[in-house]
Amino acid sequence: AALIVGAVLSATEPPADLGALVCDMEAGTIVASDPGVLENLKLCPALTGAQRDALNAVLLRGDTAYGDPASWDLQSLQNLGPLVLALNQTTLSLV
Question: pTM of this prediction?
Answer without folding.
Answer: 0.79
